[in-house]
Amino acid sequence: MSSSTPTRTRADATDSHSGTIGLLIAAIVAVLIGRQVLALLIGGRGGVATWTTVFCAIVVQALPFLMLGVVLSGAITAFVPARFFSAILPRRAALAVPVAGAAGALLPGCECASVPVAGRLMERGVVPAAALAFLLSAPAINPIVLVSTAVAFPGQPGMVVGRFVASLATAVLVGWIWARFGRPEWLTRFAARRLLPAADDTTPAFERFRLAVAHDFFEAGGFLVIGAAAAATMNVVIPPDWISTVAGIPVLSILVLAALAVVLSICSEADAFVAASLTGFPVSAQLAFMVVGPVVDLKLIALQTGTFGRAFATRFAPLTFVVAVGAAVVTGLLIGVA
Amino acid sequence: MRREIQAVVFVLLGAVLLKLVISGEYLNYVQKLLKFPLIATGVVLIAFGVLGFLRDWRGRAALDRSRERAADARVRTHGPGAHADDDVPEAEENGHDHVGDGHGVGWLWILPIFVLVLVPPPALGSFAAERGAATVPKPPKSVKFTALNGANPVPLEVHDYAQRAVWDDGRTLTGRTVELSGFMTPHSGGNWYLTRMKVNCCAADARPYQVEIVDSPVPAVRDEWVKVTGTWVPSTAKDPFEKVALLKATTVNGIPTPAQPYE
Q: What transmembrane ranges does the database entry give (chain A) (predicted)?
C-alpha cells in the first residue's frame, strides 16, 4: 500500500484538475438523469419507494451514532496514550476479556458506534479478544438499550436482566474463544491499517484526530450504505406472514427470530420494541432476537468486513451468531423457570 | 482526488442532514428525538469537510515547494518503497492520501446523498401497510384504557383506537364519536382501511395500525390522507388476535399529509 504512494501522490496532483472537471460533468449528468429516473420510480409509491424510504431511514438513523463512534475512536487514537489501556486492562487475555466486556456498558451507542472504537482500541495495543468482547457488549448492554428494553417489556424485568446476562455472556464467551483459537492473520486488513500515518506519533494530536475521524467515518459509511441496502431489500422482500406462521414451533421460532434480527438490522436501541411486538413467540425467541441483533446483522457484518477484513468477518459473524443464540436459549429457559 | 471527494462528501452529507431537519422531512425516516443529534452530526460533518479542504490547500502549497527536490532524491536513494518519515509535511501528505485507501467503498456515500437531495422518498404508505397485518398486536401490560375526556368528536391516535376497539372490547368507545387521521389503504370490495404507521426508532421498524372503515361515504383513493369521524362498531370475530378494528364513518375529509406521518 505504502510502496506506491510517492508516485501516486504526484500523479494525483497533476491529474487533479482534469479529474475534478470530469467528476463535475459526471455529477451534472447523473443529477439530470437520476432525478427523472428516481422520480418515476419513487413517484409510484410501490416497492421501490418503500425500499428507498427504509434505506434512507437506516442511513439517517445510523449517522449520529456512527459519528459518535468515530469521534470517540478518533479521540482514543489521538489523545489517549497507548500505555493507558495496558495500564487499566489485565495483561492476560483471559482476564482482559470480561473486563472489556463489562466496559461495553459505558458506551451509549448502537452497533455502528462500536466497530470503529474496537478497531482503534486494537490499534492502541488492546488485545484483539478484549477489543472484540467490547465490540459485542457495547451495543447490547449500555444503559440506553436496557432502558428501552424495560419500556418495551413493562412489568417483565426478567427480559431486561435476561438481555443483559445473555449479551454479556455472548461477548465474554466469543472473546475467550477468540483468545484461544483466533489467528492474527485473520485480521489482515486491520494489520494493513496500522501503517496509517494517522497513528504516527510525529503528527500533531488534533491532526491525527481529524484524519482518524475522517477516515473511519468515510470508510464505515460505505459499508453502512451496503448494509442498509441489504436490510431494506429484506424488509421489502420477506413476506411478513412467513414469520407469524412459525410462532408456535419451539426450536424453529428461535432460529427464525434470530435470523430475522440478522437481516432486518434494526438499531439495538429500537429492537426491543420490535421484539415486544412479535407476540405469540416464546420468551427464548424474543430474547434471541434482542441478543443476536446488536452483535450480528447485515450492516454490522458489512462494517466489520470494512474495518477488519473479510477473513475476519466470515469467521467472527457465524461464531457470534451461534454463541448468541445459545446464550439466549439458556437464559430464556432460566427466566422461564424463575 | 480521494481526499477532495471526501471533503465534498462530508460537506454535502452535513448539508443534507441540516436540510432534512429544517424542512421537517427527517420525520419521514426517524423519530423527533433524533432532531438535535442530526443537527450536531450535520454541523460536525460540514466542519470536518471544510477543515479537510483547508488542510488540503495548505498541504499542497507546502508540497509543491518540497516535491521537486524531496521526491526525486528519495526515490533515487531509497527506491520507490521508501517511507517518508524523514519529512514531516510529506508524511502528512501521505496521510491524506491513505484516506479512503483500500476499498474505495466510501464512494457509496454518494447514493444516499443523491437520493435525499434529488427525490427525498415519502413516508411509508399503503405498500408497506399491506405487507403488515390488519389485526392489532396485543398491547403491553402498561397500556391503560382510561375514559375519553372532552366533547365529541374525540381526536384519537389510530393505534390507540385500534387497541381500545380490539383489546378492550370498545368499552371506552361506546357512545362516543371519535376523530382519526391516517391514509387510505384499499382492500377487497371497494372497502378501505384507515392506516397509520407506528415507528419506534426509524422507518425500518415501522408497523401499520389499521382501522376498517364501515359505510364510507367516499371511495378509496390509495395513499390519500383523510380525517374520519365516526363511531365504534364491534367486530364479528371472537378471538382478539383475529379481530380487526372497525369504525362506522360519519364524515371523511381529505387533509394534507401531516408533518409527523408516524405515530
A: 21-42, 48-81, 93-117, 129-153, 160-179, 217-238, 245-266, 272-296, 316-337
Neighbour-count burial of B17, counting CB atoms closer than 10 A to its CB (0-12 exposed, 13-18 middle, 19+ buried)? buried
| Closest to A255 (Cα-Cα) out of A289, A293, A299 | A289
Question: For residue B231, what are the β-bridge partners?
Answer: B248
* Higher-scoring residue by pLDDT: A12, A285: A285
C-alpha–C-alpha distance, residues B105 and B227, integer Å: 46
Residue with the bigger pLDDT between A323 and A20: it is A323
pTM of the model: 0.78
Q: How confident is the model at residue B63 (pLDDT cuts 50, 70, 90)?
A: low
Helix (H) or strand (E) holding A48: helix A47-79
Contacts of B104 in chain A (CB under 8 A): 222
Let me know: does B211 contact B162? Beta carbons within 8 Å: yes
Residue A5 is which amino acid? T
Inter-chain residue contact B99 with A7, CB threshold 8 Å: no
Distance, first Cα to last Cα, chain B:
45
In angstroms, the CA A178 to CA B139 distance is 41
pLDDT band at B242 (very low <50, low <70, confident <90, very high): confident
pLDDT digits (tens, 9 = 90+) for A290-333: 999 999 988 888 888 888 888 899 999 999 999 999 999 999 88
Confidence category of residue B102, pLDDT binned at 50, 70, 90: very low
CB contact under 8 A, B5 and A213: no
Task: Return d(Cα A246, Cα A243) in angstroms, integer.
Answer: 6
A221 vs A314, which has greater pLDDT? Answer: A314
Q: What is the DSSP string of A263-285?
A: HH---TTTHHHHHHHSTTS-HHH
Instruction: Among A53, A219, A232, select the one facing B100 at the smallest CB separation.
Output: A219
For A70-173, strand residue ranges (E) read: none
Gap between the Cα atoms of A328 and A91, Å rounded? 30
Q: A interface mutation test: which of B99, B113, B195, B210 has the most A CBs within 10 A?
A: B99
Per-residue cell: A43: 413517484
Q: Do the Cβ atoms of A20 and A27 come closer than 8 Å?
A: no
In the three-class reduction of DSSP (H, G, I as helix; E, B as strand; rest coil), residue A150 is classed as: helix
CA dist., res. B77 & res. B2, Å (int):
28
Pairwise CA distance, residues B33 & B18, whole Å: 15
Judge whether A12 and B67 are in contact, CB under 8 Å: no
In terms of Cα–Cα distance, which of B4, B10, B3 is closest to B98? B3
Is the Cα dihedral A185, A190, A196, A199 positive or negative?
A: negative
Taking the CA of residue B151 and the nearest CA in chain A, the distance in Å comes to 32
Residue in the block written with cell 488534533: A206
SS3 content of chain A, % helix, strand, coil (to 5): 85, 0, 15
Instruction: Tell if the CB–CB gap between B205 and A221 is shorter than 8 Å.
Output: no
